[in-house]
Specification:
The chain is α/β, with parallel strands linked by helices. The protein contains 6 helices and 6 strands. It comes from Enterococcus xiangfangensis.
Length: 390
């Protein structure tokens, strides 16, 4: 009876030692759901801002394309203007050369004296007027050429001013374009980083929720197991009490019969006393105490190894996100054999959470975690019985 009570108490204490660190560190599902909801709302808000930013980007790039088109058109116009300027300069130079040549010819040949002589040699007034008109036409033509030369200079000056203004505007548009592009790129990068951070937070919360669900399931299973064992213990106690009462009753009956036989023996011969004594019934043997297993569930025979988070090659966190410094009672399993999050009892190790995996943990192999390397060496490699509680 005492052995059974010790087994039950030890099981409950061990389970409490395993789960209490988890209870102390883990957040409730309600708190995790609130965090998840808040981050989801924030992500939706960021997604809306990102969509607005994308619309702004599209509009801005449309403006950029329009500006680039204008830049291309201005460059073409500027190229044509430069060509016109070159052509105009060539014409101006040609006119200058022609006028200079005519003036040189006039000086060499004394054209002025000839013109006056031609007017004086006119036969009559009509011929005089005709010759004067012809000379006037020639002079007007020269004046027109001079005026054209001035217009060409004005046009050249205007084209240069247009060129300078166009270049300044193009430079200003280019600087504005670079500034807007940098601003949009930074805004998009920040929004994307916020979404990535929220995604990481949601993944962590999802892992925490799975751990919390596994903890609650293990707690429920342990509670059910404790109730089952308590009922079994109560039934065993009742059975033991009945057996003790029956044994006591039988013992009292035997004592009464012995007293009666002793009284009868005092009045009988010695031979009869010996016969009577040899025929006395033996006291009832004490029944064996019933035994119950520590836990119940699917049982597996497995090979066990050991590992520790104190080893430099290992981390402090398991595949389920459990901190081994806070919750050392963890075993690594093959999820296809024992589902992650299950509560298991390992013979010689105790009750633990199946909360980790490993590259070498395949099939019927279980890797038990210890806080120190010395404990791992003491454990070594051994065959164990594994009971899947939940």
């Amino acid at each position: 009876m005492k052995k059974q009570m010790f087994g039950v108490v030890a099981t409950l204490l061990l389970g409490a030692n395993v789960l209490l660190p988890v209870f102390a560190q883990a957040e409730s599902l309600n708190e995790l759901d609130k965090k998840e909801s808040a981050i989801t709302r924030q992500s939706d808000k960021i997604s809306g801002e990102l969509q607005i930013a994308l619309n702004d980007v599209n509009e801005k790039y449309q403006e950029v394309n329009e500006i680039r088109t204008k830049i291309s058109q201005n460059e073409a116009t500027l190229k044509k203007t430069k060509s016109d300027i070159t052509e105009t300069e060539q014409k101006i130079e040609q006119r200058k050369l022609a006028i200079a040549e005519r003036m040189k010819t006039a000086q060499v040949n004394s054209m002025t004296d000839r013109s006056i002589t031609a007017l004086l040699e006119a036969k009559d007034l009509g011929e005089f007027l005709n010759r004067a008109f012809a000379m006037s036409v020639i002079q007007n033509a020269e004046k027109t050429k001079v005026a054209s030369l001035g217009e060409a200079k004005d046009k050249l000056t205007e084209l240069k001013a247009t060129q300078e203004k166009t270049q300044a505007q193009l430079k200003k548009d280019s600087q504005s374009l670079e500034a807007e592009t940098t601003k949009l790129d930074n805004k998009m990068a920040n929004l994307k980083q916020e979404l990535a951070d929220n995604k990481t937070s949601l993944e962590k919360i999802s892992q925490d929720k799975e751990v919390e669900k596994a903890r609650q399931a293990a707690e429920k299973a342990q509670k059910a197991q404790a109730e089952k064992e308590a009922k079994a213990e109560k039934a065993a106690q009742a059975e033991k009490a009945a057996q003790v009462a029956a044994a006591k009753k039988a013992e009292e009956a035997a004592k009464t019969a012995a007293v009666q036989e002793k009284a009868q023996a005092s009045s009988q011969p010695a031979s009869a006393q010996q016969t009577t004594t040899s025929e006395q019934p033996k006291p009832a043997e004490k029944p064996a105490e019933p035994s119950t297993p520590t836990t119940s569930g699917r049982t597996l025979q497995m090979e066990s190894t050991a590992y520790s988070c104190a080893e430099s090659v290992n981390t402090y966190f398991t595949a389920m996100g459990i901190d081994l410094r806070q919750n050392p009672q963890v075993v690594a399993v093959d999820p296809s054999v024992i589902p992650l999050g299950s509560m298991v009892e390992v013979s010689g190790y105790g009750i633990a959470i199946a909360g980790d995996t490993g590259g070498a943990i395949k099939g019927n192999i279980i890797d038990c975690h210890f806080s120190t390397v010395e404990e791992c060496i003491q454990w070594g490699r051994r065959s164990v019985t594994v009971t899947v509680i939940s």
